[in-house]
Amino acid sequence: MTTEPPAAAVPPPSFAIVKRRLSFFGLTLDECIQVFFGGNAFVAVVVLALITYFLFREGSQFFGQNRQNLTVYRQAGLEYVDFMRRQEQAHTALTRGLFELRMRAVVDLTERQKLSLADANQRLAGFDDYAGRFDDAIGPLRGMVADLTEVATAIKTKFTINEDKMEERQQLLEAGRVAESEAVKVEAVDFERELAPILGTKEAYLEINRALKAEFATLLQRMPPAPTPALQVEVERFKVKVQAYLDTFPSIEANLAAWDYRRPVPLWKAFSAYLFGRQWLTASFWQDWYGVVPLFVGSLMVSAVALFLAIPLGVGAAVYVNQIASAREQRFIKPCIEFISAFPSVVLGFFGIAVLGEALRSMSQVTWLQWLPGFPIAERLNALTAGCLLGLIAIPTIFTLAEDALQNVPRSFKEASYALGATRLQTITRIVVPAGLSGIISAVLLGLGRVIGETMVVLLCAGNRIAIPDFTEGLGAFVQPVHTMTGIVAQEMGEVVRGGIHYRALFVVGIFLFFLSLGINFLAQKIVRRYRISVG
């Protein structure tokens, strides 16, 4: 007696038709499913390759353009004038320090010694005369720098205009609008002739320098005593700074003597000026500089604040939810933390501007908090404000991945610990967390990658000051405004000329960010794989 196969074993007609059509192309259904899902990895590789190609295509020409930028900087005499300009700026910094010393003396005299403001000013009359003489000493050099600045700027402007005319002439010739004989001739700039007024001031500069050395030596000897005993150390420190300033004169003179506008700028100089440059200065009448250091430092500072907040909160919440919380608490806490990632970053940025920044500045005015570094806060938008918000953004990433890492710790580890008489706290701190440490570290690294690539929050809340913070203030540097790599790209990309050096420089920042994020994620994935192997 034969039995009929069950009805479920007979494939439906539509399924049979699909199989027949696939067999017509020489593919089985399993192979098609494999191709479909396996193609995701291929698409990811293609997208990654296209992004890399696009970034390098747009940014690869920057260093050649930067080399040309530095070449013009040298040939037009701006580099020569900048040797003197730095000498003048160093004196300005010393003068500023002298007047800050006076302000501290006024505070000391009026608050501690209870003098009136008029009496304090009268006691500081001799100090004021000395500060005025110190400030006036640089007058001849300042006048020379001002005159040479006009000459060098005119040379650079003339060169730029000529370059534009030559480019326009070439475009007209290529378009066939004018013949070679009819095209406007553009004469190259004769830098040797144009630089003659600048180089002719060398002897006058040396004479000014000799007078400056004598004047400052006299000022050092005749410096009045400290206005108050509490400032004696500051006065001695100021004398050391003045002596160090005088010691730089021979090197400046040597640089001017060895300077030659014909010396070519090596290509490595274009790389080092970008990688180690401490200025990001664009649209300047004098010279544009593209140095990534202040942007990189700003990104690191904001990320450090974010991780300082996110690591203990994210990891602590993961440990509590995974090891201590009841099922009811888990159902409540996990969605709440993960819901934070649903907030748009621009909303968090508005919150930072309107609420958090102002709240931090108001809190810094409280008297009993004045001992904290950087308090009271002068700027409400700074690295601390942006870092706090980025820490909030990073918490869900760190929490989710760290909780998964703890969940994957074998249950036998905990059971063995309890069997040996360990308490729950001992089991968590000495068994569970160390066993999941690799996964927790990878969670932190992925949180760092999330933070360092954030744009809108830092653009709105970091203050956007392109300068390296004053680290002499210690932790107080974190309440100073900063700019970041992501912020500069978002802020300036819409305003640059396509194909220009500024445009290329922003793409190089993008390349830097791309490989930084790629390296962080690669390191995190490598740690995860090692963790899985060790657990397996």
Description:
- There is one protein chain.
- With 536 residues, the chain is mostly helical.
- It folds into three domains: 11-59; 74-266, no CATH class; 294-535, MetI-like (MetI-like fold, Orthogonal Bundle).
- It contains 23 helices and two strands.
- Strand 1 and strand 2 form a beta hairpin.
Structural class: mainly alpha
Give the uncertain stretches in residue-range form.
none
Q: What is the N-to-C order of secondary-structure elements (H for helix, E for strand)?
A: HHHHHHHHHHHHHEEHHHHHHHHHH
Helix content: over 70%
Q: Examine the coordinates and then state which fold CATH places here, giving the name of the CATH topology of the largest domain.
A: MetI-like fold
Count structural domains.
Answer: 3
Spatial strand order of the main sheet: 1-2
- Average pLDDT works out at 86
Strand percentage: under 5%
Q: What value does the Rg take, in angstroms? A: 33 Å
Any idea what the CATH superfamily of the largest domain is called? MetI-like
Total helical segments: 23
Helices and strands in order, then pairings?
Layout: H1 13-24, H2 29-59, H3 62-75, H4 78-112, H5 117-123, H6 125-136, H7 139-175, H8 191-194, H9 196-199, H10 202-221, H11 232-247, H12 249-258, H13 267-275, E1 280-281, E2 289-290, H14 293-324, H15 327-339, H16 345-364, H17 383-407, H18 411-419, H19 424-435, H20 437-452, H21 456-461, H22 485-492, H23 501-535
Antiparallel strand pairs: 1-2
Looking at this protein, list some descriptive labels.
536 residues; mainly alpha; MetI-like fold; 3 domains; two-stranded antiparallel ribbon; 23 helices; 72% helix
